[in-house]
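Hi there. Long-time user, first ticket. I'm pasting a complex I've been working with (about 1006 residues overall). I'd like to know whether the download I got is complete or cut off, because the file seemed smaller than I expected. Thanks.
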Amino acid sequence: MLQNQNRPKTFLVTGATGFLGSHITANLLSAGHRVIVLARSKNGQTAKNRVLQLMNWFGLKKSECTELTVLEGDLVHPGLNLEPGSLQLLAGQVEETVHCASDTSFSARRRKQVEQTNVQGLINLFKILERSSTRKFHLISTAYVAGSNKGLCREDFVHPAGFNNVYEETKLLGEHIAAEKCARSNVVLLIYRPSIVYGDSTTGRTLLFNALYYPIKTLRFFQKLYLKDILENRGNKAEAMGVSLLEDGTLHLPVRINGTGSSWVNLIPVDHFVKAFMAIGEEKKAEGVFHIVNPENTEIHQLLKYITQYFHLSGVRIAGKDTFDKKPKNALELLFENYIRVYSSYMRDTRVFEHAKTSRFLAGKNIRCPDFTYDVFSTCMRYAEEVDWGRR
Amino acid sequence: MFSEKIRKTAAQCRHYAMCKIDYLDTGICSSGKENHFVSHFPQGRMDIYDALAKDLIPITQGLVEIVNSCDLCAVCDTQCHFVTGMRPVQVMKALKEHVQDFISSGKKPVNVESDEILENLRMIVGSRWAENDPAILVAYANDPFPLAELRMPGYVALPGSRDEVSELVRFAGSRKIPYVVRGNGGSVFGFVFSDGLVIDMNRMKKIEIDTENWTALVEPGVTSFELQREAVKYGLRANTAEPAATVCGNIVCTGLFSTWAATYGVNSDSFVDMEFVDHEGEIFRLNEPDAPNSFCYQNRLSTAPGICTLAHVRLHPTTNDEEGLIVPFSGFEEAVDFAAEMNKRRIGLALGILGGHYLSTFMSPSADLADKVRSCLGDTLGIKYALFMIGDRFDREAVSSLREPLIDQELFRMFMLGLPGMADTEWIELISGMDGDNPPFETILRPEMRPLLDAVLNPSPETAARAVDEDLRDFYTELYSRPEMTDMVWLNMFRIISARMSRKKHMFAFLIYVPLNRMDVIKEICAELKRIADAQGIENDFGFLTPIDLGKRAILEYDYYIDHQDPEEKEKIRRALTEFDPYLDKISASTKGVKLLKYIFSQGCARKEAFLYI
Ligand SMILES: Cc1cc2nc3c(=O)[nH]c(=O)nc-3n(C[C@H](O)[C@H](O)[C@H](O)COP(=O)(O)OP(=O)(O)OC[C@H]3O[C@@H](n4cnc5c(N)ncnc54)[C@H](O)[C@@H]3O)c2cc1C
Ligand SMILES: NC(=O)c1ccc[n+]([C@@H]2O[C@H](COP(=O)([O-])OP(=O)(O)OC[C@H]3O[C@@H](n4cnc5c(N)ncnc54)[C@H](OP(=O)(O)O)[C@@H]3O)[C@@H](O)[C@H]2O)c1
Ligand code: SF4
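Hi, the file is complete. Here it is re-exported in full:
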């Protein structure tokens, strides 16, 4: 964990029950800061229990969380549904705010809900902070606010011509709202734009199995399903899908993924994100937009190679549109098509994220984004399997 | 000694009389079949155990006979479990043990004296068919209706013929004995109770099918299930709703509405003629020119024209290409518009929009699985509403040319037999992760997905049976091996799964006729009933909506769910009543086409036109 170079401060963190928010909370606490988090209760668990359980995941015992205060609240309500005492606490003590909470759904069906959290929620938060002592606002945004822009995406405020989904649209709107509110009340604004975050590059540990993990998890689901069918039930169902078990134990899973080999994904491990965030956040003079991205993109066919090698799969391949004209999609391909459609702007990226400013700053602090090698991939997959993709 | 756990099970009996019909083809309780009194059926025995435990009745001679007539065959265990999830045989055992202990301790059961009224009743119906023994009477004393208390009758009589009914009425009239007629008590609205005499029609069970006319003559003890079973033998179909409801009682009471109402209509559409014994004991038929006019409608609480002793009901032709179909929707308005359009275009024999609760509950053999499936259907797949339809080949072709994807019979069977797989965590995660712009069902239900669904769900009777307790699995495996158990047409004709909707809690249903072109009114009624229930902390949900009369009107059901044994829940309903009653009256008075079933009760013979268009 990072050591605090500066005096301990009081932070408000939203989204502390999420992937990045929990990492940030744990790191701020470890660095000796006082952290007030805004969290929701869920599935019969209180907000406090949820956050404490997560801190425990980071190895922080209850006794190490004495500087942690959990306030139960929800961004979508004016006043965040906070009790008057909590409001007072925020007004009097918060010096810096880290806003990680977000609805990360890409679905147009959920537009209203996404807007409520990402736009109205942010406005509600600023309303509370207006009366507080916050002097610095750390906004966790995304590199994909670049929307439908092509080519180089600037490490600055952007005005894309369009968006691939409601998430990008509301995240960008959030940046503009934050800029306007911070300017008006003289609060320093730092906008962090990570690309796609995966697990820890050295341990593979992660809390979230979406984005990069989802298609792999899906392949793994079908691998197990058809293996079971072949090994325990004569394999009729596998045969119906053209799935077979090769002699060397490889499962042949014929899935054509619509796309071209010349696209890529930009992946950063969560340990890098946290290091970068802490370093930038602590920097007194830092201000503006920071692209926390990987200078090296990962080609899709490279990723596919990793997957098939690690899981002993064959038959999964990138295919051009014309192959589908010849042979229509099967069920597995239809599922993937759905996924690809949603994540196409991320999985078929041809955008390049400008990162000179952030990279220069991080280099000065000896922070470098680890490469997405087969070793790193294997470490992450080993962990994913160990915890049954987050179910354990 | 009474076990409180067993008593609680006994007290949870919903009184839907499902144990009185042989709906699983396992046979029914032999004692009930032979003795006809409710007290001899598992349902009555549940009441008896509860009443004994509460010290409401003594151990009587009659009770000993009831107990002795149970051989613990356990038929009721599977029958009851299928719809309620309960296992009544533990109650039967406990009841037997209690009475045996009582007798072996040397105590004597109470011998209930006869009296002059009972003697007279016995003269009319035969000595075996009239009773005043409290153990027998207690099975006629209540139902789960939350706004009424236990009401013990003085007597119960089971007439065997129309003339006996007439004599009973005359006798009761001459002695000023209040009386009430009981079909199977499945109205569960506190209707079939009296301090005086209960006339139970269970012995009058004749059915005569007229194949030339496509009609049937039905006596008042015949249930919808039994009539349907008979009609099917001749390739015909009866308009039926709840299977355990008596046909006569159902027509008189609610006007018999169901998803078939989309084609077969409601109220007087169901019958050719009805025979009644009036309050003076006189016999008349509705079609006689000087009969009381029961075809009219008055917008107030009213009573039936008498006791129906014979219904001459219509039967309907069937074709051998009928199949069920489910059209999924993510939004209510879209579903309602589509259903209205279907009915307007005369597409579909049976039509009904179901909410997620109904759909998942109907399909699931256990309440736990139903909850998971509901969440999978609604939250994961995005199926918030579904239009259920029975149609012939042309109907189904028409629907599939208008909308895709659909759940056809093949897929429905796959779902029913693979239901535990549908609730599988990994599968649910996979679909949830799709996060697309369209609801996931649009992909998952596509025909190309079937081989994959087949692998994921692994549908088979054994898989379906995984949802129930281990000791029941063989039984369920065998049951689900029968094609009719997963056939939408059969299931909708015999309706054996509808009582499952009260599996968790008793259902307090609001039934309202609504104008189908007034989406605003339909939505407002649902929203207001929801608001009232939410304010009292009552579980509530949309039930179903069936278009009728070529899409001009619809029957809307909205349900409140309450534990009828919990005094607090009863109190909640009481408080809610002060809001929903005036609200519904007001909207009914101010909006054309809104009519409350509350007033149609007992005017089931009325022409639908007499109330739908005023
Ligand atoms: C789970 C469930 C679902 C239901 N769904 C529907 C539905 O979809 N459609 C529908 O129409 N109903 C439905 N009902 C209501 C129920 O089926 C009807 O109320 C039906 O009338 C019950 O029949 P029964 O023989 O049990 O009548 P009872 O409850 O015994 O009697 C109902 C009323 O009719 C009177 N009555 C009974 N027999 C006669 C007779 N021979 N002559 C004159 N009056 C008589 C009784 O005095 C009483 O007032 C449902 C009930 C349940 C429990
Ligand atoms: N992970 C990535 O790859 C990635 C990449 C780029 C940018 N980002 C950005 O990083 C931030 C964190 O993402 P994440 O991956 O950590 O997401 P996450 O795991 O989904 O966490 C989201 C957090 O937001 C909270 N939240 C959502 N709606 C809320 C509301 N109405 N009120 C209060 N809290 C609410 C959630 O609380 P509950 O737990 O109660 O739901 C959760 O704590 C987001 O702003 C996201 O846009 C993430
Ligand atoms: S166990 Fe007793 S009550 Fe149940 S069906 Fe058999 S005989 Fe009837």
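A couple of notes from our side: Residues B 16, 180-188, 191-192, 201, 220, 241-242, 245-246, 248-250, 252-254, 256-258, 304, 307-308, 498-499, 502 surround flavin-adenine dinucleotide (ligand 1) (CB under 6 Å). The CA atoms of residues 141 and 175 of chain A lie 7 Å apart.
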